């Protein structure tokens, strides 16, 4: 039954190849242009750090390019769909397919299946490449494009408040009791005034307080520095306040974000906005499946009627309307106005129904 729903194997492969070729050609052009513009704006910041040069610029490109690919892949799928269907319509190939007895859904079937493949590749690319590149680039930006901290899960420039005191950790690694802080500074404040600054090379949590190693105390009033060796400070400040101080969902894979949400819930913190981002990691790549349906209006109708361009504009408008609705729903989910599942999945199913309604109304 399923093979009978598709056109012949030759036609299906022909349409899928056209679709993939045009999609990734558009994506390559967008990435090249946008990466050039982004590099022009950021190269000054990267080169501002002493010692940075061409190697660091290429490092920035390698970290930023995956983000651009992930962001604009769905736009490329939409444009690839419109170009493919408009070309088939212009060459009267759609008319030939319909005259052979195929319905509009059967004509679109190869593109939808190919969109599923693109969605799977997009998900795997986001999980394996984009999440790591985003986390690394975020950490690099926090050190002003200086030497990057090594190791997975490294957080940079983390600030925590303990009553009136402020605690800064240059780097934080690990989870739970295994959390390790480096380049630590404790700002001792009383009645809104800074009294002393306690600095240390490293700090570890011993279950009740933090053991600061190589500690020094700077007294603001006298200006004197006193070596203290190993001391205990910040009693009651749990490790999760450093490691979960700022969870960037874009810098975590699906499984890592799920684990972070569980840790936050165990610590009694709100996780609704992160759950919306978690489910959007699944619904986002699936937008590639919607694009052939939303852009289908460009593939049907008589090309000689002079309305092919108008149909292409309508298909593009439907696609961009989906992107606007998707971003709006995700923003509402991050604010807590929408439930996480609704924020992540409502735009997908809404425009799935809209695309089906337009296709059935005009062609079926």
Automatic annotation (TrEMBL):
PANTHER family recorded:
LIPOPOLYSACCHARIDE EXPORT SYSTEM PERMEASE PROTEIN LPTG (PTHR33529:SF2), SLR0882 PROTEIN-RELATED (PTHR33529)
Q: Name one Pfam family in it.
A: LptF_LptG
- Name of the protein: LPS export ABC transporter permease LptG
Claim: Cell membrane is one of the keywords in the record: yes
Segments passing through the bilayer: 65-86, 107-125, 308-325, 337-360
What keywords would UniProt list here? Cell membrane, Membrane, Transmembrane, Transmembrane helix
Quote the cellular component terms of the Gene Ontology held in the record: ATP-binding cassette (ABC) transporter complex
Q: Which gene encodes it?
A: lptG
Q: Which GO terms describe its biological process?
A: lipopolysaccharide transport; transmembrane transport
What organism is recorded for this protein?
Sphingomonas changnyeongensis
